[in-house]
Specification:
Layout: H1 2-36, H2 40-48, H3 55-62, H4 70-91, H5 93-114, H6 126-139, E1 144-151, E2 154-161, H7 162-180, H8 193-211
Antiparallel strand pairs: 1-2
Helix pairs in contact: 1-4, 4-5, 4-6, 5-6, 5-8, 6-7, 6-8, 7-8
Length: 248
């Protein structure tokens, strides 16, 4: 399963970060983020110089698997596990692997386009996961997601349509992204909102042709709950078998 492999790679990369932190302290970890994280100014300089195959362009992929803390890693992996399983089931393993990487690259460019002179490394899988969220919204808009809703001193778990949950999430990213445009950096409180926006938009764009295959056929049946593989309707029964020949 590609989703499991991504989880494992992010875990291995984080283990490597912990080893570097233990051996060389914060300076060693910061050096890793500067070398293998995505630095917009370095990427722009490489592209302007025509250096399309370099460490800077490789960082478009490597930054996806690096995370800055346990909380950063756990949050991203939780969202990945919840939403990616159904999307991978619909796309298939090879296409989902390509989709995830392309979504991560698109998210990175979303951040770079807004803040091309930034020298702050961007790390994390949230941009690529945002692409997964965008695809989930297109492929399973009526799937229901169990959400924790607080009512003053009480809370309740209710099933909310994916189009409501993910639409509200994207609206928050868009608002925060627009607010961040007035700041000196395209990142606010360490969050690259425009990477989320770019990844989500790329996921939607790539998923739309997959929802209506073969020239506009009706989409396959959607799952009722998030994390459950989509159910495909059973084929219609065929004509009844002919009666047995009469015995003479």
């Amino acid at each position: 399963m590609v989703t499991g492999a991504i989880l494992a790679l992010c875990g291995i990369a984080f283990g490597w970060e912990l080893v570097l932190l233990a051996q060389g302290g914060d300076a060693a970890l910061a050096g890793l983020f500067e070398r293998r994280g995505l630095v917009p100014a370095d990427l722009v300089a490489a592209l302007q110089a025509g250096d399309y195959v370099s460490g800077q362009t490789l960082d478009l992929v490597t930054h996806i698997f690096l995370h800055g803390s346990w909380l950063h890693l756990a949050g991203n992996m939780l969202f990945l596990w919840i939403f990616a399983v159904n999307v991978e089931d619909r796309l298939g393993r090879p296409r989902f692997a390509a989709f995830f990487l392309v979504g991560g690259v698109a998210a990175a460019f979303g951040h770079v386009l807004v803040d091309p002179t930034s020298e702050i490394p961007m790390i994390g899988a949230s941009g690529a996961i945002s692409a997964v969220l965008g695809a989930y919204l297109v492929l399973f808009p009526r799937a229901r997601i169990q959400s924790l809703v607080f009512l003053v001193f009480f809370y309740e778990l209710i099933d909310v349509p994916a189009i409501v949950v993910l639409g509200f999430w994207f609206l928050l990213q868009l608002i925060d992204g627009l607010v961040s445009l007035g700041l000196t950096s395209g990142m606010d409180a360490g969050i690259a909102f425009w990477a989320h926006i770019g990844g989500f938009a790329a996921g939607v764009a790539m998923a739309i042709p997959l929802r209506y295959r073969r020239g506009g056929d009706a989409p396959a049946a959607e799952s009722d709950l998030v994390g459950e593989p989509a159910r495909v309707p059973a084929p219609a029964p065929g004509p009844p078998p002919p009666p047995p020949p009469a015995l003479r």
